Amino acid sequence: MMQVVVIGSGLGGLETAYILAKHGCKVCVLEKDNVFGGALQSFRRAGIDFDTGFHYLGGLDPGQSLHDRFDYLNLLHLPWHRLDRDCFDKIIINGKSYVHANGHEQFALSLAESFPSEKESLLKFVGLVRQASERIYHGADLFHSSNPDQADIYSDTFYTQSAYDVLRGLFKDSLLIDVIGGSGSKIDLTNRELPFFVFAEIYNSFIESAWRLDGPGSLIADSLVADIRKMGGQVICGQKVERLEVKDGKVTDVVTSDGNCYRADVVVSDIAPSLTLNLVKDTAAIRGIYRRRIENLELSLGMFTANLKLVPGKLKYQNSNLFIFNNSSPWTAGAAVNGASVADRVMVSFRYSSGSEFCDNVDLLAPMSWDVVRQWADTKKGHRGQDYVEFKQRKAKELISLADDYMETVDHSRFSECIELVSCSTPITWTGYTQTPDGSAFGIVKKCNDLARTMLSVNTPIQNLFYTGQNVNLHGLMGVTMTAWQTCQRVLR
Amino acid sequence: MTIEEISEKVNTSLAEEFEIEQSLLTPDANIKTTLKLDSLSIIDLVAIVEDTFSIKTDAQEIKKIATLGDLYSYIQSKL
Question: Which of A49, A434, A455, B38 would give a disulfide with A216, using CB separation of 3.0 to 4.6 Å?
Answer without folding.
Answer: A49
